[in-house]
């Protein structure tokens, strides 16, 4: 145990963010560089090393949180990094992007602010990179078996790294021009600088993983041809079909899916454009959807110089404390102020878009909305609450409905789908097609980055067993496992 009285002697402190007026002028991460290390030992000491650490249940990766908290408290960074990597291939991703269900399940969180698990995690991995404790782990011998991984998001990368280290020859196919999936083009630079992805890719290359960009399976390369080339295939193509908003005026110019808007901004940071083809500069921006993707659109619009930013959410505003229907250790729906919301803009809850209004040139100018409420369990419009707000750029950030089927991947493989439209799989993450496996959002549906990495690791075990007859790779979750929620 780190410090038996740590949780009594120290309050919760989190990473400091840079001043708003400074950070909205650049695309660097919002946190003050180096601000965590001076406080992280004390924060790690707040971990009580519980007899039953519920943080393990909150995290699908099964992270050994009390163990690396203890090492961080003692500033044994090498041991902390080893324990962290024992369950998580990419802690620098999760430490920056995960909403931390582990903290919601922290036993200390029953009656005090939870341990800053995410901050401890990111401190350990950043220190590990700084000190050279993150090194390639090439396999001692090759199996002679080949695996294709379709998709280079967190699930695909995790599966690829696990299988490469098991001795298989792995090639990752990515339809975009760079590796990373939504990590690369869906997550803004101010949330995670892409240098973190780049150095992991270099580590994986050094281990033997091969990468093929600009190749979309189903269009550029037939799925059946891919299956003939490799002994096994892992589909980690994500759930990339955006949920649409079929209301009058949807066809107007200036209304875009979030995943049309955000990637172009990220391509500016990559040097592909001087200015993005879709920009918020000087415009009244409306973001429809109150989740993390919506917040990413808000922060991006601020940095592009929007005249105003309004975020709409159809559900009621959550409370700041757990409600009785979401008791510890479940993951609660709480009112969250992200760094993007700190930077300005307005958030409007319990409203629904009725239609859009444009100018004579077909450009969106106004969004018409109405207040809604639940009546007998049904969402109902409130008469007399209709109004309109200026909207010259609208981004739809209402989630995703499933994996892409228009490219032919599903049909060409002959894959079966489940009742929710996801690719069906068995207990080993295998599809109905022998040798073809699925991991991440393509099989689970839209989910969190920790679930994607856990799925990639678990699917890798299924593939390894299929290729060799047995496997020593870990499988932290089953396909049927779900987050701890009410």
TrEMBL record:
E.C. numbers: 1.4.1.13
Keyword Iron tagged: yes
GO terms of molecular function: 4 iron, 4 sulfur cluster binding; glutamate synthase (NADPH) activity; metal ion binding; oxidoreductase activity, acting on the CH-NH2 group of donors, NAD or NADP as acceptor
Entry annotated with the keyword rRNA processing: no
Top EC class for this record: oxidoreductase
Reaction(s) catalysed by this chain's protein: 2 L-glutamate + NADP(+) = L-glutamine + 2-oxoglutarate + NADPH + H(+)
4Fe-4S ferredoxin-type domain segment(s): 38-69
Keywords noted in UniProt: 4Fe-4S, Amino-acid biosynthesis, Glutamate biosynthesis, Iron, Iron-sulfur, Metal-binding, NADP, Oxidoreductase
Required cofactor(s): [4Fe-4S] cluster
GO-annotated biological processes: glutamate biosynthetic process
Pathway(s) of this molecule: Amino-acid biosynthesis; L-glutamate biosynthesis via GLT pathway; L-glutamate from 2-oxoglutarate and L-glutamine (NADP(+) route): step 1/1
InterPro entries linked to this entry: 4Fe4S_Fe-S-bd, DPD_II, FAD/NAD-bd_sf, FAD/NAD-binding_dom, Glut_synth_ssu1, Glutamate_Synthase, Helical_ferredxn
PANTHER family assigned to the protein according to its UniProt record, in alphabetical order: GLUTAMATE SYNTHASE [NADPH] SMALL CHAIN
The protein, known as: Glutamate synthase [NADPH] small chain
Native species: Streptomyces montanus
């Amino acid at each position: 145990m780190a410090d038996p009285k740590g949780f009594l002697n120290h309050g919760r402190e989190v990473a400091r963010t840079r001043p708003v007026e400074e950070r909205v002028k650049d695309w660097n991460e919002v946190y003050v560089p180096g601000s965590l290390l001076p406080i992280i030992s004390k924060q790690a000491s707040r971990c009580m090393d519980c007899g039953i650490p519920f943080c393990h249940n909150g995290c699908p990766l099964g992270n050994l949180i009390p163990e690396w908290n203890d090492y961080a408290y003692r500033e044994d960074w090498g041991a902390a990094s080893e324990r962290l990597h024992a369950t998580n291939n990419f802690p620098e991703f999760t430490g920056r992007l995960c909403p931390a269900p582990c903290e919601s399940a922290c036993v200390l969180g029953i009656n005090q602010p939870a341990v800053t698990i995410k901050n401890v995690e990111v401190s350990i991995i950043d220190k590990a990179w700084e000190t050279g404790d993150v090194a390639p782990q090439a396999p001692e011998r090759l199996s002679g078996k080949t695996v294709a991984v379709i998709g280079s998001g967190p699930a695909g990368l995790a599966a690829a790294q696990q299988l490469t280290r098991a001795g298989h020859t792995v090639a990752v196919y990515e339809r975009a021009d760079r590796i990373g999936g939504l990590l690369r083009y869906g997550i803004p630079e101010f949330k995670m600088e892409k240098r973190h992805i780049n150095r992991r890719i270099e580590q994986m290359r050094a281990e033997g993983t091969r990468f093929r960009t600009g190749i979309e399976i189903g269009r550029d390369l037939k799925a059946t041809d891919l299956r003939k080339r490799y002994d096994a295939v892992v589909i980690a193509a994500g759930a990339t079909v955006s949920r649409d908003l079929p209301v009058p005026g949807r066809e107007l110019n200036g209304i875009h899916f979030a995943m049309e808007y955000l990637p172009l901004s990220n391509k500016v940071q990559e040097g592909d454009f001087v200015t993005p083809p879709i920009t918020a500069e000087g415009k009244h921006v409306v973001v429809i959807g109150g989740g993390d993707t919506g917040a990413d659109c808000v922060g991006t619009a601020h940095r592009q110089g929007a005249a105003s930013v309004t975020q709409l959410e159809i559900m009621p505003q959550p409370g700041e404390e757990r409600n009785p229907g979401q008791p510890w250790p479940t993951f609660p729906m709480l009112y969250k102020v992200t760094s993007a919301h700190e930077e300005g803009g307005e958030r409007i809850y319990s409203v629904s878009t009725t239609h859009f209004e444009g100018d004579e040139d077909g450009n969106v100018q106004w969004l018409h909305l109405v207040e809604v409420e639940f009546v007998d369990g049904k969402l109902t419009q409130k008469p007399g609450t209709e109004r309109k707000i200026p909207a010259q750029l609208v981004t739809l950030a209402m989630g995703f409905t499933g994996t892409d089927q228009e490219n032919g991947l599903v049909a060409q493989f002959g894959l079966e789908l489940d009742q929710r439209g996801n690719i069906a799989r068995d207990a080993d993450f295998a599809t109905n097609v022998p040798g073809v496996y699925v991991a991440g959002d393509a099989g689970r549906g839209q989910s969190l980055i920790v679930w994607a990495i856990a799925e990639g690791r678990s699917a890798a075990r299924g593939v390894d067993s299929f290729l060799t007859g047995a496997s020593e790779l870990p499988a932290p979750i089953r396909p049927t496992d779900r987050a701890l929620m009410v």
